[in-house]
Amino acid sequence: MASWLSNPKAQLAATAIVSGAIVAGGILGYQHVRRQEKIEDLKSSIPQLGKEHQADKVCSNVKLTDFGAAINDSGVLGKEDLRAIELAERAQRGDFDDDLILEQLARNRVFLTDDGLKKLRSAFVIVVGCGGVGSHCTSALARSGVSRIRLIDFDQVTLSSLNRHAVATLADVGTPKVGCLRRRLQQITPWVRFDLKNELFAANAAAAQLGPWEGQKPDFVVDAIDNIDSKVALLEYCHKNNLPVISSMGAGCKSDPTRILIGDISASTEDPLSRSTRRRLRAAGVASGIPVVYSTEKPGEGKAQLLPLPDEEFAKGSVGDLGVLPDFRVRILPVLGTMPAVFGYACANYVILKITGYPCEEFPAKGREKMYDGILAQLQSSEEKLVRAMIPGENAQGLKVGVSVGDVGYMVEEVFRGKSVVSGITTRLALVRWRKPLESPISLEVEGQKSSTVKLKDLVCMTKEEAAMHEKEVLRGSKRPEEIYDKQTVALVEARIAEELQYEKYR
């Protein structure tokens, strides 16, 4: 031992180790002291309520209303809410240590870089719909650094909301959802500014509801609406006014988070809300270009299903806004509380990546335009053959068909779900008349221009081979569809035609 200590190299190494330990200890000690100082600074910045403060006067008689809201007889908020409001007011005036904010956002900062976090902190995001999906999305955006958030929702927190809402408590039951979100989140991120609109989103108010806030246009819009009319109006407005938007499709009846995807609306499947939204948008001329969060989970035996709404609910008033299909009976959506949260976080994650410029995969639309062109050309040829068969000697060359490529995509994808109504095959598809017309298949809209009388409600989707046989037997022959196809196929076609008639008013 003595010989080791007398070794100059060993002594030098020991000295270096001890010195390093002392320096490291000093640095860690200094950091600990600074951290404690910052914590004390934060605590001291929180407003202290004096004896004369109204919250002290009423805190002894704070109670719950019939809805569970925490207020006193005079309608004054509870002590903690008042403290949070005062702190938030200070923070939004700039009276809040920026170093503390950066410390709270430290993990995001190292992930997104200083430049990315700066973009996020200066962003303005609008969240429309503040229920299960919207509340989790808003919470994630605020916690991640977005400093200006507009919330739009007309509804109140209910007891049944608490299984999936991000921040609501029993004390929030009966209060507006937008107010609940601000009140709870300002206790977590007091520097975030919220612009509340306690109202239903509507097409005639879209310009104001989605307009600038203090001169700043929205960097992103999040659609977390479950009302089909409002949802379609929002997405159509955003698409046509070049507002970046992401839409959450239905979380009801879903249970597998691994099946949740983000993709173009043209590719979303296995969801009635998604299908109905996509179909209405196609009817309005919007076929793609909107990113959506959706689930590919298929229904199955033993899984939750749509439940009928009790008759007594109809006696309370109009409930049509809750329906996925217009004029269809409204049904209750069973919701597993975890699934709206996953949808909401997926929306927030996408918004964060896009705003900060973090590498993010683009989601291509379902590129089948060439196929639609081919189907339209084949439909025109079919109509020309029908004219010649029904009106011998009639020159049908150059016959105009009042169906566009967009109409073809709508019929194939939305009405017939991308497959033959006869065999269910998804390739080599064609559109053809279902029944032989009783009157002339041509009309003269303009002198010298012959046009087909075919309408979308007249068409069905088959494979090319099935369509050729159908033309021969039904359109140019004498048979009716009922003589060729089984009852299930005929019933399916009639159901799809009836369904299309429900949507015709949106075209």
Automatic annotation (TrEMBL):
<dbReference type="Pfam" id="PF00899">
    <property type="entry name" value="ThiF"/>
</dbReference>
<comment type="function">
    <text>Catalyzes the ATP-dependent dehydration of threonylcarbamoyladenosine at position 37 (t(6)A37) to form cyclic t(6)A37 (ct(6)A37) in tRNAs that read codons beginning with adenine.</text>
</comment>
<dbReference type="GO" id="GO:0005524">
    <property type="term" value="F:ATP binding"/>
</dbReference>
<keyword id="KW-1000">Mitochondrion outer membrane</keyword>
<protein>
    <recommendedName>
        <fullName>THIF-type NAD/FAD binding fold domain-containing protein</fullName>
    </recommendedName>
</protein>
<keyword id="KW-0547">Nucleotide-binding</keyword>
<feature type="transmembrane region" description="Helical">
    <location>
        <begin position="12"/>
        <end position="30"/>
    </location>
</feature>
<dbReference type="GO" id="GO:0008641">
    <property type="term" value="F:ubiquitin-like modifier activating enzyme activity"/>
</dbReference>
<keyword id="KW-0067">ATP-binding</keyword>
<dbReference type="InterPro" id="IPR000594">
    <property type="entry name" value="ThiF_NAD_FAD-bd"/>
</dbReference>
<comment type="similarity">
    <text>Belongs to the HesA/MoeB/ThiF family.</text>
</comment>
<dbReference type="InterPro" id="IPR045886">
    <property type="entry name" value="ThiF/MoeB/HesA"/>
</dbReference>
<keyword id="KW-0496">Mitochondrion</keyword>
<dbReference type="GO" id="GO:0061503">
    <property type="term" value="F:tRNA threonylcarbamoyladenosine dehydratase"/>
</dbReference>
<keyword id="KW-1133">Transmembrane helix</keyword>
<dbReference type="GO" id="GO:0005741">
    <property type="term" value="C:mitochondrial outer membrane"/>
</dbReference>
<dbReference type="InterPro" id="IPR035985">
    <property type="entry name" value="Ubiquitin-activating_enz"/>
</dbReference>
<dbReference type="GO" id="GO:0061504">
    <property type="term" value="P:cyclic threonylcarbamoyladenosine biosynthetic process"/>
</dbReference>
<keyword id="KW-0436">Ligase</keyword>
<feature type="domain" description="THIF-type NAD/FAD binding fold">
    <location>
        <begin position="107"/>
        <end position="377"/>
    </location>
</feature>
<keyword id="KW-0472">Membrane</keyword>
<keyword id="KW-0812">Transmembrane</keyword>
